From TrEMBL:
<keyword id="KW-0408">Iron</keyword>
<dbReference type="GO" id="GO:0043546">
    <property type="term" value="F:molybdopterin cofactor binding"/>
</dbReference>
<dbReference type="InterPro" id="IPR017896">
    <property type="entry name" value="4Fe4S_Fe-S-bd"/>
</dbReference>
<dbReference type="GO" id="GO:0051537">
    <property type="term" value="F:2 iron, 2 sulfur cluster binding"/>
</dbReference>
<dbReference type="InterPro" id="IPR009010">
    <property type="entry name" value="Asp_de-COase-like_dom_sf"/>
</dbReference>
<dbReference type="GO" id="GO:0016020">
    <property type="term" value="C:membrane"/>
</dbReference>
<feature type="region of interest" description="Disordered">
    <location>
        <begin position="942"/>
        <end position="990"/>
    </location>
</feature>
<dbReference type="GO" id="GO:0051539">
    <property type="term" value="F:4 iron, 4 sulfur cluster binding"/>
</dbReference>
<feature type="domain" description="4Fe-4S ferredoxin-type">
    <location>
        <begin position="140"/>
        <end position="167"/>
    </location>
</feature>
<feature type="domain" description="4Fe-4S ferredoxin-type">
    <location>
        <begin position="183"/>
        <end position="212"/>
    </location>
</feature>
<dbReference type="GO" id="GO:0008863">
    <property type="term" value="F:formate dehydrogenase (NAD+) activity"/>
</dbReference>
<dbReference type="InterPro" id="IPR050123">
    <property type="entry name" value="Prok_molybdopt-oxidoreductase"/>
</dbReference>
<dbReference type="Pfam" id="PF13510">
    <property type="entry name" value="Fer2_4"/>
</dbReference>
<dbReference type="GO" id="GO:0015942">
    <property type="term" value="P:formate metabolic process"/>
</dbReference>
<dbReference type="InterPro" id="IPR041924">
    <property type="entry name" value="Formate_Dh-H_N"/>
</dbReference>
<dbReference type="Pfam" id="PF12838">
    <property type="entry name" value="Fer4_7"/>
</dbReference>
<dbReference type="GO" id="GO:0022904">
    <property type="term" value="P:respiratory electron transport chain"/>
</dbReference>
Length: 990
């Protein structure tokens, strides 16, 4: 909100408030209400509802178009303006049947109802007429009822210019206008990605969550055979007693519902964007997820999972009591028995075979406080640094590249910096499906402000389709083009020499290391035409501000750390660090994979990335924890990858795994399962009896984020607090409480009774979190680390200095090394792999209830048209994919999203999953498995084709219909349109 003040004269009264904000918001800040329906603070003025008319300078204007400024004089009480507003509302009601007391949406969140009540309309002037359309229930998550649609266009604006999926439109020239999906009348099969933006902004019940239907209120679940006659009676009654009496009943109903409905702020449990929103619940029933404009990372934006994929919280498959394995079967146990057994066995193994014979895997889905307790138990009680989290499988190479060059293991800036960059280079990141809300911010920047995109990826996903330039690269060769770009910058005068001189070390040595990386050489290695490489280099060199985003398409290769280093080097060479709209942004995959690392679930770092091998650091943590420094190890521990390998060789005897599906997610499934089988003792703490839990000796039922309190760190280093939406299911317990109770049984009664106490402890020790507190994270507030002791955040890193001893960055030479596994005569194809929008990881959460799964229930492999033609394959044909480790049988989907001999498969489905094909080749710097390097052989199978591997109702079949804005001018141009306050002959059309 603006810090400048101004005075606005409103109905003769001088009002002082923020300058240059929408008039409606200005009046709201001054406790004045201007009636409105189509206006929404997160959207551009739509001018469609005609309910906010005011008089300015003797003319009627729509109030939503005005912004506050000094000297603005407005008259709303003028009879002409009042009549215009009433006419506008009358037209809306002609398109919407008011039956509020039996409407699921009468929960206080219906803008149409609330505005109608505030305006005290005596009666509905125009008779409501049913439209010639049926209610669309084809989407698994929400419905569209044309009979309730007031044609305000909020949903269209949200879809076109906030989400920028560009699915929805309204054709005001139709005989009976309605909202359209890809120009058609059915949601299923359109390009709708079920992000829920349209439902969030709908001002009535035209678009409504299915979880709100039919039991959102005390009278809403009555059968239609009773509801319809009741509505007809009430509508007839309105004509005799007036609308206000009837609406008064609905206001009472609203108040009764609000007493039952609980609204709780939480943070999404899926990807690393860090979306926050309210959850509306009645007891354990989740009515809806409601984003708010105050949410710092996402505003009103959500994706299909954050908005709708919460069926798992009440899944009958949830673990609700501890389990102990006896005679190779699980039996229920009390918490006392289970925790006593875990404490006894872990201490015994520590004493018998040493602290380093036990390994801990913390959860990238658990809270920061839980990550902290995990590493505290490992280091303080057991005495080992063998603690890790799932960042080992995805983002450790990116972190290593940043450590080498600029010093902090996190994004250089915020989502806002990505949105304001002149050029965004997107490398190995299917952002629209993996981080959809960030993709929406970028799509909006591109559509509305002309932001440029350079996408480097073997696959033509949505970001590539929308890019200014897409470079289809041979997988695993990104280091070469990135280094060639750096050389080009030096050779063609695009290097920021002043920045390099003032702020960067090792410039000359690095420049010499670039000698092999000519554009010609890069073209040979990457498969990209030299002219295209030159065009990309010019694009980067000429851009005033550049951000580079990368994800698992870079990090899950055998030299992902080196490639990440090369990308950061390129940013340094061009001076693209430390300024708004610049920097490196490795996208974090899980909701708290950043926080799990930040708060110490790493083999070599205490919380705040303080080295375990530094004696001074060890002494500091020992003093804080009240123990002798000798109790804490100076030896770097083992990571996830090595723990599993050591389990197979008897060097690791026990493991404690929290919220990670390691048996599904780790590379080379056969060896992982063997390692787990060889352990003397395995504890798994999770929500479900996962594939990993099936190997356990003790299973402890934890809680999802909605059943506990804590904090997460998103991909932009933003710390956010979440609150308990509902109590733990059954006898499950918050994970921080389980760990606290376990520690007490192991001789360390820390006495935590609230996660805020744990955060306070961390803030008192780790410098990066010095000013973090639950008070400063209250509600929608957030902090971005490093946080100074006074509580001030650091949204943009490196503005003054880099994280190094001398405050300077380092250009870090890297050399080209080919992928550890390439195609050859026996295995002649490459199998790329990654995520899909509607699923998440092993689908342990997103797959419950069947709604998200229904979008794409089957596993398939994408093959290129040229490969399909060469092998005589069609969509649906079955093939066997064989690697050097294993094989799987799967139908094919022929698509130009992939090209040549590079295939694509999702990581989500399948009984054993993709990791029956992956190997143990890995990045030697950080031990991240090279998941993306799978050489395969494809053999056609004589088997009845699958009729539809990707169902026709899936959004990938849709054809978007982009428009710049809601075409309200089409309505105004119609011969039968009359501007209020003149009465309208056909109000149902407007």
């Amino acid at each position: 909100m603006s810090l400048q003040k101004c005075t606005v004269i409103y109905d003769g009264q001088a009002l002082v408030g923020p300058a240059d904000i929408p008039l409606i918001d200005f009046l709201d800040a001054c406790n004045k209400t201007l009636p409105h329906v189509c206006y929404h603070p997160a959207l551009e003025p739509l001018q469609t509802c005609d309910v906010c008319w005011v008089e300015q300078a003797g003319k009627l204007v729509r109030g939503c178009t005005l912004r506050s400024h000094e000297g603005l004089e407005i008259n709303s009480a003028n009879p002409h303006a009042s009549a215009a507003r009433e006419e506008g509302m009358d037209r809306l009601l002609a398109k919407h049947e008011l039956y509020c007391t039996v409407c699921e949406h009468n929960t206080g969140d219906c803008t149409l109802h609330n505005t109608m009540v505030d305006m005290h309309l005596p009666i509905q002037r125009y008779a409501w007429q049913r439209k010639p359309y049926v209610k669309d229930e084809s989407n698994p998550f929400y419905t569209y009822d044309p009979d309730q649609c007031i044609l305000c266009g909020r949903c269209v604006e949200a879809c076109q210019n906030v989400e920028v999926n560009e699915t929805l439109s309204i054709d005001y020239t139709q005989q009976h206008p309605r909202v359209l999906w890809d120009g058609g009348t059915r949601i299923a099969g359109s390009s709708c990605v079920s992000c829920g933006h349209c439902v969030t902004v709908c001002p009535c019940n035209a678009l409504l969550e299915k979880t709100m239907q039919p039991d959102a209120g005390p009278f809403t679940s009555m059968p239609q055979s009773l509801k319809r006659p009741l509505i007809d009676v009430v509508k007839a009654l309105e004509n005799t007693i007036g609308a206000e009496i009837v609406s008064g009943v609905s206001v009472i109903d609203t108040q009764l519902r609000q007493q039952e409905i609980k609204r709780t702020k939480t943070v999404c449990t899926y990807c690393g964007v860090g979306c926050s929103f309210e959850m509306w619940t009645r007891d354990r029933h989740l009515l809806k997820v409601q984003p708010v404009t105050d949410a710092p990372a996402n505003g009103i934006s959500t994706c299909v999972k954050g908005k709708f994929a919460w069926d798992f919280i009440n899944s009958p498959q949830r673990l609700t009591t501890p389990l102990i394995r006896e005679n190779d079967r699980f039996r229920p146990a009390s918490w006392e028995e289970a925790l006593d057994l875990v404490a006894k066995r872990l201490l015994a193994i520590r004493d018998e075979t040493g602290p380093d014979s036990i390994g801990f895997i913390g959860s990238s889905k658990g809270s920061n406080e839980e990550a902290y307790l995990t590493q505290k138990i490992a280091r303080l009680i057991i005495g080992t640094n063998s603690v890790d989290n799932s960042s080992r499988y995805c983002q450790n190479p990116a972190t290593e590249g940043l450590f080498r060059t600029v010093g902090y293991g996190g994004d250089a800036g915020t989502i806002a910096d990505l949105a304001q960059a002149e050029l965004v280079v997107i490398v190995g990141s299917n952002t629209a499906e993996n981080h959809p809300v960030i993709a929406s911010r970028l799509k909006a920047a591109k559509k509305q402000r002309g932001q440029q995109w350079l996408v480097v990826d073997p696959r033509r996903h949505e970001m590539a389709e929308r890019a200014d330039q897409h470079l289809r690269i041979h997988p695993g060769t990104d280091l070469v083009w990135a280094s060639a770009m750096s050389r080009y910058m030096f050779d063609h005068g695009y290097a920021d020499e002043a920045f390099l001189t003032q702020r960067v070390n090792n410039v000359e040595a690095y420049r010499r290391s670039l000698e092999p990386f000519t554009l010609d050489y890069a073209a040979q290695i990457t498969g990209i035409q030299e002219a295209d490489l030159r065009a990309a280099a010019e694009r980067i060199g000429r851009a005033g501000s550049v951000c580079i985003m990368w994800a698992m398409g870079i990090t899950q290769h055998s030299h992902g750390a080196d490639t990440s280093t090369a990308l950061s080097n390129l940013l340094l060479v061009t001076g693209n660090y430390g300024r708004p709209g610049t920097g490196g942004y490795p996208m974090r995959g899980h909701n708290n994979v950043q926080g799990a690392s930040d708060f110490g679930c790493l083999k070599n770092f205490y919380p705040g990335y303080e080295s375990v091998s530094d004696p001074q650091v060890r002494d500091k943590w020992a003093r804080a924890w009240g123990v002798d420094p000798q109790r804490l190890s100076l030896e770097i521990g083992e990571d996830n990858f090595m723990m599993v390998k050591l389990a197979s060789s008897d060097q690791l005897r026990a493991m404690y795994v929290i919220g990670e599906e390691t048996a599904f997610s780790d590379a080379d499934t056969t060896n992982v399962h063997q390692g787990f089988s060889e352990l003397d003792f395995l504890v798994v703490q999770d929500l479900f009896l996962s594939r990993t839990a099936q190997f356990a000796d003790v299973v402890l039922p934890g809680c999802p984020s909605v059943e506990k309190e804590g904090s997460f760190v998103n991909t932009e280093r933003r710390i956010q607090r979440f609150y308990p939406v509902m109590p733990p299911l059954g006898d499950s317990r918050p994970d921080w409480l389980i760990l606290t109770q376990l520690a007490a049984r192991m001789g360390f009664d820390w006495g935590y009774t609230h996660p805020g106490q744990i955060m306070a402890e961390v803030a008192g020790i780790a410098g990066s979190f010095a000013g973090v507190s639950y008070e400063r994270l209250e509600g929608w507030k957030s902090q971005l680390w490093p946080v100074k002791a006074d509580g001030s955040s650091t949204p943009l890193l490196y503005t003054d200095q880099f994280k190094s001893a001398d405050g300077r960055a380092t250009l870090y030479p890297v050399s080209w090394q080919p992928p550890a596994e390439e195609a050859d005569a026996d295995y002649d194809l490459l199998l790329n792999n990654g995520r899909m929008l509607e699923h998440f990881q092993s689908t342990n959460q997103s797959g419950r209830g069947g709604r998200t799964t229904s979008l794409s229930p089957e596993w398939y492999v994408e093959i290129s048209p040229e490969l399909a033609a060469g092998r005589n394959l069609n969509t649906g044909d079955w093939v066997r994919l064989s690697s050097r480790r294993g094989a799987l049988e799967i139908p094919v989907l022929v698509t130009d999203r992939v090209q040549g001999k590079v295939l694509f498969i999702s990581i989500h489905q399948g009984k054993e999953g993709i990791n029956q094909l992956t190997g143990e080749h890995h990045d030697p710097a950080v031990n991240t498995p090279a998941y993306k390097e799978i050489a395969i052989r494809l053999d056609a199978l004589d088997r009845t084709p699958h009729p539809n591997p990707l169902p026709e109702h899936n959004f990938r079949h849709g054809k978007r219909t982009p428009i710049s804005r809601v075409p309200v001018e089409e309505k105004w141009r119609r011969d039968d349109y009359r501007e209020p306050p003149e009465h309208e002959p056909h109000p149902e059309k407007f």
